[in-house]
Amino acid sequence: xxxxxxxxxxxxxxxxxxxxxxxxxxxxxxxxxxxxxxxxxxxxxxxxxxxxxxxxxxxxxxxxxxxxxxxxxxxxxxxxxxxxxxxxxxxxxxxxxxxxxxxxxxxxxxxxxxxxxxxxxxxxxxxxxxxxxxxxxxxxxxxxxxxxxxxxxxxxxxxxxxxxxxxxxxxxxxxxxxxxxxxxxxxxxxxxxxxxxxxxxxxxxxxxxxxxxxxxxxxxxxxxxxx
Amino acid sequence: xxxxxxxxxxxxxxxxxxxxxxxxxxxxxxxxxxxxxxxxxxxxxxxxxxxxxxxxxxxxxxxxxxxxxxxxxxxxxxxxxxxxxxxxxxxxxxxxxxxxxxxxxxxxxxxxxxxxxxxxxxxxxxxxxxxxxxxxxxxxxxxxxxxxxxxxxxxxxxxxxxxxxxxxxxxxxxxxxxxxxxx
Lengths: 227, 183
Fold this sequence. Notes:
The complex is a heterodimer. Chain A is of the alpha/beta class. Helix content of chain A is 41%, strand content 12%.
């Protein structure tokens, strides 16, 4: 076929596929590969949640098309959750939307708000969809090197000073995949103040909201003997 | 041993900042917090104009998630605090097993404070290979698969990423496989 598909052609090669293929080959050859490749949780959801799924699936009326924006009770539940956990008030009608996972919601949000040629700033290294979705939307990427939260604020200021038209969207993701960088509320205060001043749209992927741990204890040579 | 899933410092939501809703949307995910990655349930929260724009596009594209999944997700959000703490503890222990193991081998990785990953700078002796070749090398020599950092774009190539999705037993097996790279 002679046609060319510009949106597809703009996508960078998917390097993870190279490793996946080699992994598959090794497994077919009978090798036991320990797979730390994809961030794909291996344990099941809580039992009560699975029970509820099964119970709901047995009701005939639950098999019809649902509501695109999410059922009211689920939008209420996430609003309550944010209230209880973060003290954040959300209107379940206008400020809450259920998405088909974050990748879908994020990608379509980019499609909704990014005009061709708009600058989208993404701290890098980055979770690939944070780069691909602005590209799919025909936006232009600005990579902000992510060394530390403090340095990111500098990079952000520099990017907004140097580029015209001014950047439109800032993508954040803390705790951060892949660098594991975490930030505190003060960092977010500075981001919000900066975004308000520069009329930036901030999109925060909070996928690891529950995965922050207490202090790590380095291995003690004496205590580690025989382990 | 610290048994401190209750005293853990939890990461802030961007929406906690007063005025954040004027400029921001935050995505929340069920995938990692509740071990529900295959269910595909997420949320867009915050600025009404942005949420409204996404809502409009989606109303043309999809009919929403299978309703039993939405109903079960309500239970997860309402009643599963202890289970979430247990999930977090599983990742913490895996992190400790992997990071301590790598450090003992002489791979000085930094223990992550958050996420389900270890972002490991490639050891000096192998760094010139680049992350894709190094990942191939790990697969071949140690039977361990990792994500090459170059797949995450600018600045990623000196690193590989371990996802903490193998149990502690398997993680120790991986460490035995990795030992020969450091001997």
